[in-house]
Design goal:
- This protein has about 80 residues and is an all-alpha fold.
- The chain has one domain.
- The chain is about 90% helix and about 0% strand.
- Helix 1 packs across helix 2.
- The protein is rod-shaped and about 95 Å long.
């Protein structure tokens, strides 16, 4: 009978160990998905920054075309 008790204890330990490994895998996968989502959000932020930069450069060039110095063009385009 002692052999059966040891087998049951080993089975319980294996079950707990498997649950722990499963939890570790799920947590690791979740953190990788979260990192990927964060990188996508950062990339989208750079995309809008690029559009804003292009708009600013076009504004400066347009004001410079009227004969204003560069400093005045930049001040106008930044709202100053």
């Amino acid at each position: 009978m002692a052999v059966k008790k040891d087998t049951k204890k080993d089975t319980k330990k294996d079950f707990i160990k498997n649950k722990a490994m499963l939890a570790y895998g799920v947590i690791q996968l979740g953190s990788k998905v979260l990192s990927a989502v964060a990188l996508v959000a950062i990339a989208l932020g750079f995309c809008s920054l690029k559009k804003e930069s292009n708009f600013f450069n076009e504004c400066v060039e347009e004001i410079k075309a009227t004969g204003s110095p560069t400093a005045d063009s930049v001040r106008f385009c930044t709202g100053g």
